[in-house]
Amino acid sequence: MKALIIYGTRYGTATGIAEEISKVLKEENVDVDLVNAREKKELDITSYDLVVVGSGIKMGKWTKATMNFLKKNKNALSKRKVVLFVTCGAANEEKTVAEGQEKYLDNIAKENLINEPIATGLFGSVYDPNAKQGLIFKLINRSIKKELEKQGKDPNKKHDYRNWDEIRAWTRNLTTE
User: Please, which domain of life does this record's source organism belong to (predicted)?
Assistant: First the structure.
């Protein structure tokens, strides 16, 4: 099996997940190409059996490069096994997982794919209060800090909500689909 993992990232969180997916697929004897969507505008996907498309979510949106990839390759993707994943704050708390699944995976699949993906992955994010962010993040960050304080967590420290064991198990299942 030959797989393409194409991802979009703003702060590196999706990169880490894409790299781990690549590592696990290689352990499962899959030939893998790992591509940052921002770095590769043109991509021939005809040689791939499996295409994994992922993105970090910022302000409720996929990265522009991954959305462009989905739109540009809609017909070609209909002839392949497709998987979608995102890393976002909605996965950090049980109460927002269903909303995140619908908004960032189910709706994106309906709007941009002809066939349903064989799998979707909603993975936790990384909260880094020291990362360079825009004005809107600074405003939202106030509520994030309050929520962290309610949970007894230090809002001035970095928090990684990615569950690596879950990501690895999810990836291993892709080879059985």
Answer: Archaea
